[in-house]
Amino acid sequence: MLGYLGGWLSHYLSQPLPGARSLTPVNLEQLAASIAPGDVLLVEGNTRISTAIKYLTQSTWSHAALYVGEAYAEAGGGEQGVIEVDIREGVRRVGLGDFTGFHCRICRPVGLNDEERCAVIDHVGRRLGYRYDMRNIVDLARYLLPEPPVPMRWRRRMLAFGSGDPTRAICSTLIAEAFQSIRYPILPRISQAQSLDPGCWGCEIEVLYPRHFTHFVPRDFDVSPYFHIIKPTLEAHFDFRRLNWGDTGVTTDEGRSEALRNESDRR
């Protein structure tokens, strides 16, 4: 009975909101040309659960996924694979094309060698098939209200509630755990301590302490000082001078002709 009710809840929460659409949908060709294995892909979702997550995190981003390229291709999704966590299907591999029409952003870890990058990808790849526990009704019901009446200081904990089961994972939790497995920082706690170097007696150094991976949300990869932000539009040789602007002061025929000339020049 609980499993049936949980399945209904997950289906309801994963439905797109009527009329919801992105004002800045990503160009798939530009996205594919800019992204690299090991990058974190942030997505502005349009479902009921996405709306609740964006409110709770006070952020544009409601979803995070890891781009794995050709790795684990046998799990589906083609050569441009992305591993994500779906509330109904669990940890799965999909194609980059599944994010067509969504507002996306690439967050790239800096300084990883091939071995470390493969370790991050393998960490999420080994969890393909993990499923969300549909019997945890309370865990699902927290997303029923688009704007849950939760004080600001409790919102992050509300997202983390119930996510410790090893057979259950949310998108940012799984990715944060993968990066922490190689001790790559996201948003660690930082404190000052005395240096143990005898040549620098009295010097203070920064000491990093990892936060528990269940407390991470998609926006953390965006605000982290340790991830480089990649915007596909800017990577594609963006030149604002070549944009076609609509001008109410120009006649329709003239405006159309100018737009066609600009398009011809670009080609």
* Name of the top-level CATH class: Alpha Beta
What Rg is obtained from the alpha carbons, in whole angstroms? Answer: 22 Å
Instruction: Report the strand count.
Output: 8
List the uncertain runs.
none
CATH homologous superfamily identity: endopeptidase domain like (from Nostoc punctiforme)
Task: State the CATH architecture.
Answer: Alpha-Beta Complex
Count every helix, treating DSSP H or I runs of 4 or more residues as helices: 10
- H/E series: HHEHEEEEHHHHEEHEHH
Whole-number average pLDDT? 80
Plain-language structure description:
The protein is of the alpha+beta class and 267 residues long. The strands form 2 sheets. A 6-stranded antiparallel β-sheet has the order 4-3-2-1-5-8. It has a two-stranded antiparallel ribbon with strand order 6-7. The chain has helices at residues 2-13, 28-34, 48-57, 114-125, 137-141, 152-160, 171-180, 219-223, 232-235, 252-266; strands at residues 40-44, 63-69, 81-86, 90-95, 103-109, 189-194, 204-209, 227-230. The chain has one domain: endopeptidase domain like (from Nostoc punctiforme) (endopeptidase fold (from Nostoc punctiforme), Alpha-Beta Complex), CATH 3.90.1720. The protein is globular. The longest helix has 15 residues, at 252-266. The N and C termini lie far apart (59 Å). 33% of the residues lie in helices and 18% in strands. β3 (81-86) and β4 (90-95) form a beta hairpin. The model has no long low-confidence stretch (mean pLDDT 80).
